[in-house]
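The freezer alarm interrupted the setup, so I double-checked each line after restarting. Inputs confirmed:
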Amino acid sequence: MIGTLKGQYGSGIREANTYLGQNYMVVEPSIVSELLQILRDREQFDYCVDITALHYPEREKQFELIWILYSFSRNERIRVKTIIADGESVPSAVLIWATANWLEREVFDMFGIRFEGHPDLKRILLPDGWKGHPLRKDYGIIQQDQEWVQANLGIESGQ
Amino acid sequence: MGAGQPGDRERPINMTDRTITDPNPKTTEARKADPTRFLSHLELDQPDKTFLDSNELVINMGPQHPATHGVLRVILKLDGEQVLGTECVIGYLHRGVEKIAENRTYTMFNPYVDRMDYVAAVSNGLGYCEAVEKLLNIEAPPRAKYIRVILTELNRLASHQLWLGTHALDIGAMTPLFYTFRDREEILKIFEKYCGARLTTHAFRIGGCQYETYEGFERDVIKFLDFVPPKIDEYEELLTTNRIWLERTKNVGVISKADAIALGVTGPVLRASGVKWDLRKAQPYAAYSDFDFEIPIGTNGDTYDRYTVRMEEMRQSLRIIRQAVGKIPEGPIMAKVPKVMKPPVGEVYHSIEAPKGELGYFIVSDGSTQPYRIRVRPPSFVNLQALDIMVRGALVADVIAVIGTLDIVLGEVDR
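Predicted 3D structure, all chains:
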């Protein structure tokens, strides 16, 4: 599978490897949408397990986005990873897997990464007016949106 | 449809209106194939518009509503009794578990996972411990694995019993609640004797188990195995052929196989739609490959099928426990684990079959004592997303039934 994909995309697939028996590949953000579509249609990865992100503030391109996919017929998992800079966005996978809807909203809520073409990209776990994205590394563990807390909860601080 | 809206009188009722103003001209077949049908946020999607739209009403169900199983708020768009669309508002119980994890060592984070799906704390702990063990490249000894299986399956039973009791109560049957809580108590007693806690057990440690089984553990478990099967028959007697139960659950909240897969639904909800998939079989973990058990599946994907699947799962859990308790191997219960845990740089995804579905942990290590990131893939969160498509076109009372049948725990949805 990796061989065919590499033949098709060449250097678009930067790395395809196995760690602790788990397969993953790192791909260019430009091909990620097309690749996910192919993985679902041709390679039968019909179940999108999870979409999540990682933040590395010291890197030039700060975010790693990860799709964890599973195929029922092959009983196999694969992780697709892409690296993007702060402010960059990737195409939404909502039309590939319906489950991506809430998962992408959570990534947006926690990291502030935007997904192009998402039908309703808004916060999911935090309140709509909240400022900041808590799972970024520069967001402190006890940090909160004081303004929001004071305006909406009528208390000085939530701490 | 209720009458008496002031707007009705001014506008003559004209049957042809319906065809002219139909906002969704696609045929049913075309709509079924359309991937955008899942996008049903209230404004975006226009479910089959009715002909008297003056009856449309948007109301909140929750967050303080006993039948939403916690602080779940569902915005319902109604046409009389009929649901046109829903939107879930969640996050009321958000504690930032993933953020906390980045500021704790691997060992310190272990008790936190019990607070996600607090009804199945043992399963959460198993998933987390196994994920970290994989990252550290260690394996729990066989005896620990067997103890883990027994406790996890007992917990699955307890979780299903709680589900059954509350789900039946939501639908209007009060008795099963008392029966299931009476019998669940016996499981909690075993937990309490084993580790001192009944709910948030923190039963396992990275590398094995902290506690050896207590004197008489096997006896207690076997006693329970003999005690509970007639009780499960009793629940079934109350419900399985009960006419009210059938009316309230048959063909309610139907989700097709294809939709369930597209929505990433897992656990009994997926199996009730006819997908024979259980992580305990597909990718065995702990000691599950040593035991014989069946994966019950349904055919219609309705609320009744999910009920029968879970009832059968309880019996299969008992079967696993019976096999395990008879041959718990001797030996240590803890692997050799370094005092200071510093997993090598890398990442791992490990998932288990929790009572609610696939519970996954994606852990990234930067080589320090604290995880760089822990992502929890919560089954309840993903399953809840299916609520909208399951209740569209149904009645308000069915929304309650579907929330119950999805078996969500808000602690896990919100984390």
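Quick read of the result. The two ends of chain B are 39 Å apart (CA to CA).
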